[in-house]
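ok trying this again, last paste got cut off
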Amino acid sequence: MGTPDFAVPVLEYLIENTNVVLVVTQPDKEVGRDKKISFSPIKKLAIKYNVEVFQPLKIRKDFEIISEINPDIIITCAYGQIIPKAILDIPKLGCINVHASLLPEYRGASPMQWAILDGKKETGVTIMYMDEGMDTGDIISKKKCAITDDDTIGSLHDKLSILGKELLEETLPSIVNRTNQRIPQDGNLATYTKLIKREDELIDFNDCGEKIINKIRAFSPWPLAYFRFNETEIKVIKASFEKKEKPSVGKITFDKKEMGIDCTDGIVKLERIKPFGKKEMDIVAYLNGVQKVEGMYIGKE
């Protein structure tokens, strides 16, 4: 069971090394102005390998095919729906989840983004038994991964996606042989994430530089953090930060090759951006076409 690109290495490993009898993924979506039907990355991979695909709108109400197949084990990775107890009780080897955090830290949705937003230097992948709670089941195995200062959600996503596949490859034989460890989670250490909302992506220059840079990294290359300037939304792909004495929050500083915006403890220097309705560009290209007036402030144009 899975849906996005993150789950692709896990499914590919399973197809090549086990007998995958059914792939469960989210329903197809309409995308773009012409509303073309788009398959999930997991569905595309299943079709490539001629594996049957099941796409229930609400799996808690529609899972008869899973009961009929009666699989030995169910493995989920970024599926996107809560699995009901009626399904959890089906496989004799249990329902196993590949989760992109070091549980019990960052239970729930968007664990990778929140690890970067919170300035964490380390995260990882956990393989666990699923129960009726939100990522509360017993832990089978974990593997750590460093978060570097250069990591964005794009690079961290790719690293953890491969790490999840590798950890499953190491762990699955012990699950099948019933020799794996099973460690209850300490609920007192649990933290929870939330779904990313539009307001989470807005850059607030009343924050410190580290927090702003973390937000830019956490949403690059998608959906991208943004601010508004000259009544235009500008999304930020890459920026750097420098300490500055007595910054004036929101003040814009222009140079021939630089555009900086003061925050509470320094200046955020924009390096690559995407103005609304335009392609992404480096800051030099943007400055060639913008009126540069000293004394401008974000929110005070």
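PB: full thing came through this time. The chain has eight helices and 14 strands.
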